[in-house]
Amino acid sequence: MFVLVEMKDTVRIPPWLFHINFNDAVVETLNKKFANKVVHNVGLCVALWDIIKLDESFIFPGDGASHTVVHFHFVVFRPFVDEILIGKIKSCSKESVQVTMGFFDDITIPAESLQHPSRFVDKEQLWAWEYQMEEEKHDLYMDIGEEVRFRVSDEIFVDTTPSSPENVAGEEISDTDVKKAPYTIVGTISEPGLGLLSWWNTG
């Protein structure tokens, strides 16, 4: 679920931070820049792990800040495909079930990846697994806030970097484009043992 990723970045330390230890200033700057942010094709950055190497620092004309190329490790949330995770149901729609890990919300389980057969109950705005028990069917609802075990089936990265003025000239930006998540995990529960934890509790 969490991995250590080696990264490199040019860190700018402004003059008003020169009075503190240089390494502390670098740590503070890196955490402020990357922590709780998604890096494209890397994952959700959580916290700086360590600094591997500091290159030589430079001060450029007209800028009193120091600029240093820093090599470092960052703790990143990026589950591998087929990893089993446990989250909580955040919301349901006819298209999918949204799951949250508490610190990460962009997890979706498409309708076709739910237990079979499942149906969306409009009145409750919830999905229900139509579980066959002997000769009767029982609706097992996927209530909001319930813990759910799912398998990671895919990951989607979207480059949300703003386009240059030349690219967007005359183009209308839709709400969908603006609200796209930079990193989405796609899950499935259409296998034995997956789904709500309460479905499989035998104790």
**What is the CA-based Rg, rounded?**
23 Å
Count of helical regions: 4
Hey, roughly how much beta strand do the residues contain? over 45%
Q: Spatial order of the strands in the main sheet?
A: 5-6-7-12-11
Question: H/E element string?
Answer: EHEEEEEEEEEEHHEEH
Structure class: mainly beta
Count of extended strands: 13
Residue share in helix? 10-25%
Instruction: Give the overall form.
Output: elongated
Largest sheet features: 5 strands, mixed, barrel
Distance between the termini: 28 Å
- Low-confidence segments, given as residue ranges, are none
What is the overall pLDDT average? 89
Layout: helices, strands, pairs:
Blueprint: E1 2-13, H1 22-34, E2 38-39, E3 43-59, E4 66-77, E5 84-92, E6 96-100, E7 107-110, E8 118-121, E9 126-133, E10 136-141, E11 147-157, H2 165-168, H3 175-179, E12 183-188, E13 195-196, H4 197-200
Parallel strand pairs: 7-12
Antiparallel strand pairs: 1-4, 2-3, 3-4, 5-6, 5-11, 6-7, 8-9, 9-10, 11-12, 11-13
Structural account:
The protein has 203 residues and is mainly β. Helices cover 13% and strands 48% of the residues. It has a five-stranded mixed beta barrel. A four-stranded antiparallel β-sheet has the order 1-4-3-2. Strand 2 (38-39) and strand 3 form a beta hairpin. The chain is elongated and about 80 Å long. The relative contact order is 0.16.
Task: Please name the defining characteristics of this protein.
mainly beta; 203 residues; four-stranded antiparallel beta sheet
